[in-house]
Amino acid sequence: NAGVTQTPKFQVLKTGQSMTLQCAQDMNHEYMSWYRQDPGMGLRLIHYSVGAGITDQGEVPNGYNVSRSTTEDFPLRLLSAAPSQTSVYFCASRGQFEAFFGQGTRLTVV
Amino acid sequence: AQKITQTQPGMFVQEKEAVTLDCTYDTSDPSYGLFWYKQPSSGEMIFLIYQGSYDQQNATEGRYSLNFQKARKSANLVISASQLGDSAMYFCAMRGVTQGGSEKLVFGKGTKLTVNP
After folding, report:
1. Which of the residues A43, A46, A62, A90 would you substitute to probe the B interface, choosing the one with the greatest number of B C-beta atoms within 10 Å?
2. Cis omega before residue A8 (within 30°)?
3. Cβ(A22)–Cβ(A81) under 8 Å?
């Protein structure tokens, strides 16, 4: 089925470790984004991209890096994990009349 | 700034009945899009339905319909013939712009729907 594939589903990191959350879509959408969902805070935009080679910061970009080398892939990198980055992360891909999310990654930083 | 308000923290409905989940929005943009998502306990965000600000007709998708009242700035989700599997959190969202100028989806705080047998 077409959609957004996000991996891993669960991850536990130690403080200071780095990791990459993978996101891929097969709908040829230009716009992709990363959100984090925290209790009481709703979903907040981390980074977004309007096409291959173009990325920009959202509301809460600190501690995260992104790149967009292809239309399909939009990985999110945690540079040095901190307990404050414990959250559920969603990758989203948007067309003109729809916006689909990946299955989410539940990340715990200890 | 754009804002989405969902005033119902929780709703209960009997199986096979219809239910309306409220959503009001605030924006000064003439062109915008409104979305509804379902988040079951498993955590994924499932896209349900989309309504564009210039669409003349209310959007429908199977048992889901969006009651779009532009003058009142409301975009309520109607679920007909509720099923037990409809029990979940429901989020209303609008395509908006952050203070920094980046596009994003602005989400409401959600409504937890419980369908009783």
Report:
1. A43
2. yes
3. no
The model's pLDDT over A49-71, given as tens digits with 9 standing for 90+, comes to: 999 999 999 889 999 999 999 99
Taking CB atoms and an 8 Å limit, are B105 and A92 in contact across chains? yes
Predicted confidence (pLDDT) per residue in B30-56, tens digit: 889 999 999 999 999 999 999 999 999
**Rg of chain B on CA atoms, in Å:** 14
Q: Assign A42 a pLDDT band (cuts: 50, 70, 90).
A: confident
CA B32, CA A5: separation in Å to the nearest integer?
27
pLDDT tens digit sequence for B50-85: 999 999 999 999 999 999 999 999 999 999 999 999
Please say whether the beta carbons of A21 and A104 come within 8 A: no
**Long-range interactions of B66-71: CB distance < 8 A, separation 24+:** B66/B34, B66/B36, B67/B20, B68/B34
Token pair of B80 as six digits: 């007909």
User: Are B102 and A56 inside 8 Å of each other by CB?
Assistant: yes
Cα first-last separation, chain B: 41
Nearest to A48 among B37, B50, B102 (CB): B102
- Residue B37 corresponds to which tokens in the numbers above? 């998502």
> Considering only CB atoms, which chain B residues are within 8 Å of A100?
47
Residue B98 has pLDDT above 70, yes or no: no
